[in-house]
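Lab meeting, action items carried over

1. Structure of the two-component assembly. Owner: GW. Status: complete.
Input record:
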Amino acid sequence: MERIVDVTSARRQFGTILDQVFHKGSVFTIARKGKALAKIVPLENARIEESESMSLQQKELLRELNSLPNIGIDKDPVDILRFIRKQKRIKSVVKQHEK
Amino acid sequence: MRNRRIVLDANVFLEIIFNRPLQNKAKKIFEDAILERIQIIVPGLFLDEITEVFCGNIENITDVEFYLNYIEKLANSGVLTIVVPNCTVRMKAIELARTGNKKSGYPELTDCLYHALAIINEAVFITNDKRHIAKISHFGHIAGLTDYETNL
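Predicted assembly:
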């Protein structure tokens, strides 16, 4: 069910509106002076709409992102990178001292 | 509409590959970028660092190629913007790297290059390195991977 409510009513009944959107799947259009400004829709509807508007390239990138092979290692990548970065700095400092 | 800019540390991408506890947070960032909710910027060294970590930690060369190809696809499709830091960014990085003290330690220049890129581009640097955040959070434009979506 889709309803139009003005800003003042929406502000006063915000909790009730949210309940109806969440539990009954209602859709509310918020209007000011008769002009529609925003819409409150169930999250699932928004997701479906988003998915329908996705390009093929976006779908492909998302599919690949979720199917990237995982490699379990004992080391924390943060520590690995920290080690690499630290080594680079030590070298530069040593060079400075050697001059 | 892309309304937020994020500079991503290499350790965020590695969180996904190495099956780490925050991989879902890391994936969410890439999902948001693919869906054009955010814009990801990385310095060129992002790829160099990832390649270096793969070189030393992943034996299967086919997997390595798969990951690198995926990053390239992200870049080619505009999801990932790879930039060469300019002089302004580098000078800011040096400024950041020179803060700190002997006791708490100095931030690494590489961390600072990412962070400076975020500061100069009015973006937020997202890293999983809590030590760097602790050393340099007073400069702003920085958030932990754990805080993605909650504090941003």
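2. GW to write a short summary for the group page. Key points so far: The first strand of chain B starts at residue 4 and ends at 8. The helical segments of chain B are 10-17, 23-34, 45-57, 61-76, 87-97, 109-120, 130-136.
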